[in-house]
Amino acid sequence: MSLxxxxxxxxxxxxxxxxxxxxxxxxxxxxxAFGFWLFLLSDIVLFSALFAAYAVLSGQTAGGPNGPQxxxxxxVLIETGCLLASSFTCGLCTLAIEAxxxxxxxxxxxxxxxxxxxxxxxxxxEFSRMIASGAGPTRxxxxxxxxTLVGTHGLHxxxxxxxxxxxxxxxxxxxxxxxxVRRLLCFSLFWHALDIVWIGVFTIVYLGAH
Amino acid sequence: MAAQEEQHDKAPGGxxxxxxxxxxxxxxxxxxxxxxLASFWAAGxxxxxxxxxxxxxxxxxxxxxxxxxVFFFHISSGPDDTNNFxxxxxxxxxxxxxxxxSMLIMSNLNANMMPMDRLMEMQR
Lengths: 210, 124
What we know:
The complex is a heterodimer.
Chain A: H1 3-8, H2 13-16, H3 28-57, H4 67-70, H5 73-98, H6 102-132, H7 141-174, H8 178-207
Helix pairs in contact in A: 3-7, 3-8, 5-6, 5-8, 6-7, 7-8
Chain B: H1 2-6, H2 18-44, H3 53-71, H4 82-112, H5 116-123
Helix pairs in contact in B: 2-3
């Protein structure tokens, strides 16, 4: 190699040998994941509107019960633990998918599903306890905002669980078809995003209550 | 195919490589647990100056969201992550506008609102 060649050699040969205008579209898995990433960000923008509504209305209890009287922090800590652990097992499931390990995928997906169901059961028992004690969504603006925000997150978790079951059925019938793998990776992104929203929920709603 | 993929940005998530992948998720999990426990501790403690607690909670929450983005979504500021990172930056920008904009406007309206008894008198 001459000195001139050595000096003009690109630092990152794979990235720079074709100009960006001639590289063509990215492969499908990258396009799909990027599109889904954009959807998740727009979903988080939706949640930001609900967070803003809650922040504005959290003091408007209309003489009804306020946050500290209603919320049980131990319960919230267990819920958070379930969701965090399910995000971790979902990550392990992603690794099993990338290794095309069928048993590992089923096992970690089952653990993720069980932790998601545990989270949802705790949340629903909290909701039913609140509604039974007369603190339903119609009681005050604060409770309307609370049930809308936390309920929307719970609805996302429910949809995620249904999606996970669907994906396991597709994995059982189609195997590691590229389409199935793309969808599984989108599911894992969705599940991690729900965790990020939950961080906002437990900080602003449960720990920020005063 | 591999060479072709090298020329494009990588996908968010994914990208777990063997044992490094497990280590990545495990590190994120440990960080997330520590930050969560710190948040619950901060909310109940009296050893922190009380008006400072919301700021501490906000810092812990933002830190934990950052941990999730880095260790679970595998988003970095590297050159093969530009699109993902810019999309994220725009998302954070919009979320900030919506939340802080709403709170600012509503607190301003609240402060400028006529007291309710005077408003009732004027409507008579």
